[in-house]
């Protein structure tokens, strides 16, 4: 698809919503309540689905289903980020009223970096068909790692530890400033360091999620728009469900199964094409079973 006007509409929607988010919905440095976060989450999902409806009308059923499937995959994969956000905020002692700002800047950066990864990935797949098998093997590894990863978080803290060792970081916050001066020396605030680590962490996660989405479609418009709408809604979703994340005890298994399914889809694509609608049903069904199984387990034995 080479419709420049569609890209222009998408870009305008993203810019307008980000501006509303920062300057209207969340002005100042107030902590975001669960009720407010739920409303914002509903708004982001509604916008994403409306854009999906537009894709159905403009480009047909197949493309519309590809968009919805890619959106579902990215939304599911991004759930794992929420646990990491909690750990990063705790590490840098980011208060509730500054967490939204940290995520906002981190996600704006993700919009740029994911564009680079997606366009490069599509170009590679078009030029070198065998790369899909490399992606497939990488996704198998990612699936196994997701399902059987240890609960300890030390390995996820390595990026933060490296940054703290090699950059001057103030031990204290200075309001919502990103830089401050301590004893005449300009230093990063913990908030700035947190934003950098959030961004680097998203890049690491993108190495798993983007190949998964490319297994659904290699249309840059489908892949990028679905990816970005899922990422933009991640911030409000974090504030909406952060208190209940621990109750999703089987989430990692659900994500692992989704990654494994997408890996198989890539690896067998040379001789069998799994219908996109079936892919969407498998992904949504896996998420539904994961959530219901987690809720049922919590009733028998509440998560701690």
Write the topology of this structure:
Layout: H1 4-25, H2 34-59, H3 61-91, H4 96-127, H5 131-148, H6 158-166, E1 179-182, E2 185-188, H7 190-214, H8 220-232, H9 234-241, H10 251-267, H11 276-300
Antiparallel strand pairs: 1-2
Helix pairs in contact: 1-8, 2-3, 2-8, 2-9, 3-7, 3-8, 3-10, 3-11, 4-7, 4-8, 5-10, 6-7, 10-11
Question: How does this structure look, described?
Answer:
This protein has about 300 residues and is mostly helical. The chain has one domain. Helices cover about 75% and strands about 5% of the residues. It has eleven helices and two strands; from the N terminus they run ααααααββααααα. The protein has helices at about 5-25, 35-60, 60-90, 95-125, 130-150, 160-165, 190-215, 220-230, 235-240, 250-265, 275-300, and strands at about 180, 185-190. The longest helix has about 30 residues, at about 95-125. The model is unreliable at about 150-155 (pLDDT under 50).
Strand fraction equals under 5%
Task: Give the biggest beta sheet.
Answer: 2 strands, antiparallel
What Rg is obtained from the alpha carbons, in whole angstroms?
20 Å
Overall structural class, as computed from helix and strand content, comes to mainly alpha
Number of domains: 1
Distance between the termini: 49 Å
Mean pLDDT: 80
Count of individual beta strands: 2
Number of helices: 11
Portion in helices: over 70%
Shape: globular
Biggest sheet strand line-up:
1-2
Which parts are unreliable, with pLDDT below 50 for 5 consecutive residues or more?
A: 151-156
Order of helices and strands: HHHHHHEEHHHHH
């Amino acid at each position: 698809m080479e419709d420049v006007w569609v890209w222009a509409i998408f870009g305008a929607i993203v810019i307008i919503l980000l501006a509303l988010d920062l300057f209207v919905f969340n002005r100042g440095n107030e902590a975001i309540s669960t009720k407010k976060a739920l409303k914002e989450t509903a708004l982001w999902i509604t916008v994403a689905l409306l854009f999906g409806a537009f894709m159905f009308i403009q480009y047909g059923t197949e493309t519309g289903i590809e968009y919805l499937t890619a959106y579902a995959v990215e939304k599911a994969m991004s759930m794992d980020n929420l646990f990491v956000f909690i750990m990063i905020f705790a590490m840098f002692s980011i208060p509730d009223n500054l967490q939204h700002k940290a995520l906002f800047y981190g996600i704006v950066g993700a919009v740029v970096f994911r564009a680079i990864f997606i366009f490069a990935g599509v170009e590679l797949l078009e030029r070198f068909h065998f790369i899909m098998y490399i992606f497939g093997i990488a996704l198998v590894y990612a699936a196994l790692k997701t399902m059987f990863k240890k609960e300890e978080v030390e390995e996820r803290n390595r990026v933060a530890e490296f940054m703290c060792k090699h950059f001057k970081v103030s031990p204290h916050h200075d309001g919502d400033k990103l830089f401050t001066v301590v004893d005449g020396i300009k230093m990063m605030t913990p908030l700035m360091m947190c934003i950098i680590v959030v961004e680097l962490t998203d890049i690491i996660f993108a190495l798993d999620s983007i190949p998964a989405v490319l297994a659904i479609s290699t249309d840059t418009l489908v892949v990028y728009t679905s990816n970005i709408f899922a990422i933009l809604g991640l911030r409000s979703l974090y504030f909406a469900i952060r208190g209940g994340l621990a109750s999703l005890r089987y989430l990692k298994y659900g994500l692992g199964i989704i990654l494994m399914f997408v890996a198989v889809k890539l690896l067998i694509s040379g001789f069998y094409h799994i219908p996109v609608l079936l892919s969407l049903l498998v992904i949504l069904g896996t998420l539904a079973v994961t959530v219901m199984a987690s809720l049922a387990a919590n009733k028998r034995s509440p998560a701690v």
